[in-house]
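Field: COMPLEX_INPUT
Field: COMPONENT_COUNT = two
Field: RESIDUE_TOTAL = 1590
Field: MODE = joint
Values follow.
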Amino acid sequence: MTDRPVYDVDPWCVREPELRLDRLTQSESIFALSNGHVGLRGNLDEGEPHGLPGSYLNSFYELRPLPYPEAGNGYPESSQTVVNVTNGKLIRLLVDDEPFDVRYGRLLGHERVLDMRAGTLTRTVEWSTPADRTVRITSVRMVSLTQRAIAAICYEVEPVDGAVRVVTQSELVANEALPDLGKDPRVAAALEMPLVSEEHVAKDTSVVLMHRSRHSGLRMAAAMAHRIDGPEHMAVEVESSPDVGRLTVATRLEPGQRLRIVKFIAYGWSSRRSRPALHDQVAAALAAARHSGWEGLLKEQREYLDDFWSGADVEIDGDAEVQQAVRFGLFHILQAGARAERRMIAAKGLTGPGYDGHTFWDTETFVLPVLTYTRPDAAADALTWRHMTLPLARERAGQLGLAGAAFPWRTIRGQECSGYWPAGTAGFHINADIADAVIRYVDATEDERFEREVGLELLVETARLWHGLGHHDVDGVFRIDGVTGPDEYSAVADNNVYTNLMARQNLRTAATVAMRHPDLAERSGVTAEEAASWRDAAAAMHVPYDERLGVHPQSEGFTDHARWDFAATGPERYPLLLHFPYFDLYRKQVVKQADLVLAMHLQGEAFTEEQKARNFGYYEGLTVRDSSLSAQTQAVMAAEVGQLDLAHDYLGETALMDLRDLARNTRDGLHIASLAGAWTGLVAGFGGMRARDGLLRFAPRLPGGITRLAFRMRYRGRRLRVTVTAGSAMYELLGGAELTLSHHGEEFTLGDEPVERPVPVALGLPRPSQPPGREPAARRAGPATRDPGSSSPAG
Amino acid sequence: MTDRPVYDVDPWCVREPELRLDRLTQSESIFALSNGHVGLRGNLDEGEPHGLPGSYLNSFYELRPLPYPEAGNGYPESSQTVVNVTNGKLIRLLVDDEPFDVRYGRLLGHERVLDMRAGTLTRTVEWSTPADRTVRITSVRMVSLTQRAIAAICYEVEPVDGAVRVVTQSELVANEALPDLGKDPRVAAALEMPLVSEEHVAKDTSVVLMHRSRHSGLRMAAAMAHRIDGPEHMAVEVESSPDVGRLTVATRLEPGQRLRIVKFIAYGWSSRRSRPALHDQVAAALAAARHSGWEGLLKEQREYLDDFWSGADVEIDGDAEVQQAVRFGLFHILQAGARAERRMIAAKGLTGPGYDGHTFWDTETFVLPVLTYTRPDAAADALTWRHMTLPLARERAGQLGLAGAAFPWRTIRGQECSGYWPAGTAGFHINADIADAVIRYVDATEDERFEREVGLELLVETARLWHGLGHHDVDGVFRIDGVTGPDEYSAVADNNVYTNLMARQNLRTAATVAMRHPDLAERSGVTAEEAASWRDAAAAMHVPYDERLGVHPQSEGFTDHARWDFAATGPERYPLLLHFPYFDLYRKQVVKQADLVLAMHLQGEAFTEEQKARNFGYYEGLTVRDSSLSAQTQAVMAAEVGQLDLAHDYLGETALMDLRDLARNTRDGLHIASLAGAWTGLVAGFGGMRARDGLLRFAPRLPGGITRLAFRMRYRGRRLRVTVTAGSAMYELLGGAELTLSHHGEEFTLGDEPVERPVPVALGLPRPSQPPGREPAARRAGPATRDPGSSSPAG
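Field: COMPLEX_OUTPUT
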């Protein structure tokens, strides 16, 4: 956690009022700009100092070997890893004879502002050279949400206290040296200089660099063009070499004069298109951007964002930090998914190289719900990408001796990239998570074309996987043995409740949807018999329950295991996985991240209210939240069982994960799924929002620390706003036809007139306790959040 | 399996009547000579052609990195791997101008004979050069069982059809090029040229080469000296360079003349001794060997072996192949263990580089029982080595957060070298296996000094491990969760019956032995309370039982899992681990190697006779024997439950593993534990031998294919012979005081007079079936071994 705040708390901006070199790598992630296709870390314009330079193109990857000490059948031989592509952000500046570098001379002012309504990163600098010449530099950077291939920078320099000679060098640089490529020399070798030059052209104010990735053989192009405004006498040169393109502008600025360079950057890549085709593609994108011009791009950007916020914004009274954080989260989720367009949404978006740039189940489970209800076309795109990788998933299932499709635990392009199968391959729940995202999206949009073209096949192939993965035992019970659920401190267990419940939904829905579209079902080879076998497996699905303790074991036998010795585990030994072997973690009752509790959120109808409260209390005592995916689910279920202040605490943790660098690894990129949790904790937690089968349900209830919560969302073509205060909830239809909603179990129709309903009071159950030292930080100061009688689990 | 036999069947020899170049790598393993300290593969004297050159020193290893695709706490960073040390076997020959090479000229005769009474490998060759000069070459090779540092070769050349010019070059060669160092370039790099020269000296007929291993920093010396007999005129030269020592003898042989070179080779290594000290050590060993002379070494060797066979020999009438194989097995076990002297006994002995030269639990569980009853001092030495590694095992337990000692799954010097923890670290049963070997050895020898100095501490530290590894559940049952039992097609399961029963014995015996030696117990910090806690855990030990099926599940929940689809698994998909992922194997009922069945052998008193029969039948239907460790245990338990012909079939499989190359990897070294199974299948199987608490029990019964079985063994200072025929068993005391024995449950005292007892007839139960295609090969031809009504499991 950060000692003193790095960023000001502001409802619509993230502002760094002074340059924090000690937080540079973190702020590069925080200030990353992306549209889901192109991602640029928030590196300083002049390139140095840097924490980690980063420019990424969605799904442009390099291969690296996966070495195993002991071989095994079905182990993937190589992994895909995100590549730092040609850096188009660079604009260097020479003032008189001094290169502008914040580490030299004097920094009189340095402010960076990420504006979440404008979609820009603005930097304002006042700097004196060692020879005491002062200049003011303003740069505004954007990655266009409307023109997918385009980023742009408006860079301005003006003298403050006398004439200066200035030279700016606007560059494209490929194969930048990167710090810290890891310990494995073979991996480092594979990632050093990943780009092989194919072409470089400089002309007028433009440069195009084309490269191919060394092992994966993908082709990319980066191009730049400029508009230069300044004094009459300017010397402009442009040049290129295989890895560098450079535009140099030299001039002299008198007081009152200004040099302004607008840099348009275009990126493109392809695994199939020819060099000339790709060259023309980026050139055309540049032409379009220049035609729009800087102001035009800014305008489009704001309009795009205005539209987004009109169906997505969340307002909070009482917790300014979370107010900022939820918008920050929504903004970055939009950035990660807006224009991914049938490519994956990575765990870090395009904000850093963490997790090798891979996508995991987090996207379907935590990120797509947010997009589904705020920007549904982006959710459809992400699922369409999964659908496009079906051939690979079928192939993988075949390798594993299974029917249907087995989607990869981690990947960039669709091939399994997990090198540790107990936590990778065995995590089959990802298939049900994808199915769940399909079901949610179709429910939220009634998008029948999607259901027919994308959804049905995803549901059918994952249902086939589950049917083959499980088996009926001699008592006719359907069991799914030897799989790994969401909690990574257990692995390869039988009948994980989360997995079995999610698989049950997957099997049932696949049968229903297939029977709804007999033409497509026939094309997929689904017979009535096969659909019946899915319904049968779903009906017989084993859901273990420990009668003795009155709780659901996370997996069969879990509650028989020894409890982790939390008392003997000091704070310095977290995260546990760095200090204890998997062997020890797997065999004991200790939970890295919500698993059974996530099942209660996503499959709530499978549990009684009493079971929910007991289970929640039981798992609170075991859950250490060594994963950033955990807090949001605990927030949602804490709210559902009436632990509103505890829910608020967990909400704070998920929402502030990156702004406060709570996991101390924001440097590697943002935790997109955790950021999604801010929205989920508010909307599904305090709003109690659940939706299925066309009924949108709410059960709003606020914690003491939040006096008002208002959120907007989209559902079946409508835009809604729900405003919650301590005593009541107001429902408003902002657009679309009337709709039936449910408020705390009571259905009503919402038309043009707002509807207000009272909020029932929560039961005052004692607060459950967490493992010592693993309590979430309190959102409200003072003893109010700690009930003195709260040390035993609920129930 | 070999198409036509490579070796003649002979009761005391293994004879290769003609050179089989297609089986060269296999015969290098078969003809390996070793004394447990020095091991020489049966490479041809002239070095080429070769399958795999190999000269090994017990525990002389190199380090190689263990690369992981995803890091994990407690993963070992490097492995130890056996090194091909300086080759002292080489004697090259030039006849006229032609180098002797069996691939050129004409081979008129080529015979190799391993003599298991003489302890020598004799090669007789008649060869014509391409220019048609014929010579007869005889070489006799030995690795001395009495002079541990010494190997020797007597090499003779004589002309057959006219005078020849001959040059012999007797060499020491370090850093030989090896074929196939594996795919991983870093591993290959670590093992290429592993020896760094420190010194080389040539003088008279002697050479000493000293080297140090590059990464592990161990020092070794190899030396040779010669005695040369031949015509009057011989030119003798000796020379050395860093990696080569060479003695050259040039002469002309007239018909009737002969050149005879006796080569004495001495090896030594140390991690601590200085260069001069080690140099002097091998020089002194050479001096002693030269003093004994070739004939003296031969005589000592035969006497040593005569003594061994007098307490170990097994005679069989009716199955000549198994007769040869059981002696072959005993001979190689003796070679592996005789002079290991407080170093480990590797899975391959010193016969090849398979499994990196590591030792596993096989040694304690399958090899030490044979040595315990035939050469008990070697068993004591092997356990003393384990005791010497206790500090490392304690350290490993500490790394894993456990009490006591955790011995490595695989190692050379005591450090854990397993790179896949579910099948390595989690195989904690190795600790109980070591304890079991201690208990067996002490019972068989009454060696109180060993018990006090070695045994007690091993028992105590392993008991501490088990006590900490398990826990009492809320019902007071003691559970051991998340461990891997012997069967490698399951992993990380709860309450593996084998593990729990072996741990129970370990805990109980540790308490008993500690209380028997209060002085030592106090020194080890064992209080009466601690011992009581072990007894309590043992008494409460969980032994799961499936009431529904009436069998013991291998581990908790095992019998709920889906059965492997054997019908759909063609013969080309075995061994399964090469064709199916662990994921799939672990979650289904399929058994690589006896696990529950091994528990019934080693902890027989924990099962009723009826349970044994039912369990045996159940697991027969699931066991595919993809491990060479399985057949012997199935032989023993088949015999116990009265399936005598089936036992004979399994006996054949374990006994002929290497002579018939059944697993197709004898090239990498012999399967020492499988070879031990020939003895175990006969003595513990058809002899029904079990021993514990001073009572030696027999329950002999022969299969139809064996008309007479006689075996010798040692027990508590006695030598015994048991002779079994179809109708009766004869017990004879060959040496030592009278002793109480048990015959089929009836106790009697055996003194100087032989005792004869009738053998009861076995119940004629139907033969259980194995997975299709996995039936053992029948030892007796024809339908006699196949009961037509035998297709369903017993019971």
